[in-house]
Amino acid sequence: MPTPHQSRAARRRATEARILDSARELFAERGFDRTTIRAVAASAGVDPALVMQYFGSKRELFTAAVQAVPAAPPTAGPDALVDQLLATLGLKLGGLPEGTLAMLRSMLTDPAAADHARAALGRQIDGIGAALPEDADAELRAALVVSTLLGVAVGHQLLGLSPLRDAPADRIAALLRPALAALTTPTH
Amino acid sequence: MPTPHQSRAARRRATEARILDSARELFAERGFDRTTIRAVAASAGVDPALVMQYFGSKRELFTAAVQAVPAAPPTAGPDALVDQLLATLGLKLGGLPEGTLAMLRSMLTDPAAADHARAALGRQIDGIGAALPEDADAELRAALVVSTLLGVAVGHQLLGLSPLRDAPADRIAALLRPALAALTTPTH
DNA sequence: CCATTCACTCAACATCCGTTGACCGAGCGC
DNA sequence: GCGCTCGGTCAACGGATGTTGAGTGAATGG
């Protein structure tokens, strides 16, 4: 309504993007089950039926909202690995992308989100495992690294544990660094 | 019905316990929202109305099912701390108690469960923080320790990440130990 | 042996949610 | 200018869920 003059296709794309943004925000905040199509539609200033028309079903809307999770960038040196991991955590950017948060929020209660999470985390594990020095436990160590970062992300972004919420990102990174180094270094 | 001869009070206590067990199992498996009172009742071989009569509401049933989470045992030495933490993880016992799993499963999507989780994890953090050597970052390091264990618990018990699921518990503990030691040791 | 208690069931209500089909009106091409 | 396309709305259905109130039958206690 307030947009004065636009091509029909442009308006169409704009409202679709508005719906997707509202969906991402609500999915990230409340998770899949507690996010209703009606709430997404209201937040986007649109009729619920339109959401269905554009995305087919609530499931497909969720999939579309979460899809923007980028894979881990190609790992370079084994030393820069830890820095890269800390960046992945999103501590440097003040937060993970909302689509990722939506997936994390729902991963424990929605089987489809759990599959998505397992796949994404599995890819991370494989990437890190390949960058680690050759060792029988490389994959397991990579899994522990990813689990550690997952725990910090959950505690910080999703649960808001007070010591984490109030701490500056670089201090968290500084304290985490030796722990990640210990996990990535064979101990024999 | 199959129980042949019992006092009325005993039967009553038995069915209440059966309901609680079914509730814990389903809450741990599917989380708060996806667990229906009808399903709990069916699993306990009972009418849904009886669940209401005994526990008042679905919320109170959940609270009762989750309540059995024990606080951290009084921390002794600063060296045994890491061992104790690994025990808390439940790796040695093949799994955390089902009430704890129920709370963890729902903590990202149910605000009440999130409060419960924040409180329980906060208590853990305080306990560990007090056991750490005096340092300005003690509480933050304790929070990172708890987050790490939370991440491993989630990845292992709730998501079932394959490298973690297939690894023997003592190997996970062995790899985790130096990382936890790095977190609990001031680095200056 | 009888009245009462009490564990337990049955049927129903109210609400909410995902989803659908008919419908409307403004912008587009001709 | 006209008819068609299409972005968008409206009203409704069907199912599931938490919750309730009346009812039933067996164990209890006197």
Automatic annotation (TrEMBL), chains A, B:
Alphabetic keyword roster: DNA-binding
Tagged with keyword DNA-binding: yes
Domain of life: Bacteria
The HTH tetR-type domain, residue ranges: 13-73
Matching InterPro entries: Homeodomain-like_sf (IPR009057), HTH-type_TetR-like_transc_reg (IPR050109), HTH_TetR (IPR001647), Tet_transcr_reg_TetR-rel_C_sf (IPR036271), TetR_C_16 (IPR041678)
Annotation: DNA-binding region: 36-55
UniProt xrefs under PANTHER family: HTH-TYPE TRANSCRIPTIONAL REGULATOR RUTR, TRANSCRIPTIONAL REGULATORY PROTEIN
Identification of the protein by name: HTH tetR-type domain-containing protein
